[in-house]
Amino acid sequence: xxxQTAEKYNLNFRLPEYAHEIYKSLDISLETFNGDSTWExxxxxxxxxxxxGMIRARFADADYKKRMEPAEVLQILRSLKSS
Length: 83
Fold this sequence. Notes:
By secondary structure, this protein is an alpha+beta fold. The protein has helices spanning 4-8, 17-25, 30-34, 70-82; strands at 12-14, 40-42, 45-49, 55-60.
């Protein structure tokens, strides 16, 4: 709601004006989904954080189709567990 978590990590962006009508034509209501009229979306991100709160890996890309590979996440988690 309100992209609060994304905002805390500076992982949100405002859609340009021209995109508002495109989203509306696809029956996507960000105003309803977000609970406000900011027209913001979160940037997809993956963080691997150890038990002491240290960020051990991170990946963020505004292109929602690009994500950290699950195998890479598992490899990092396994290395944390063994150390």
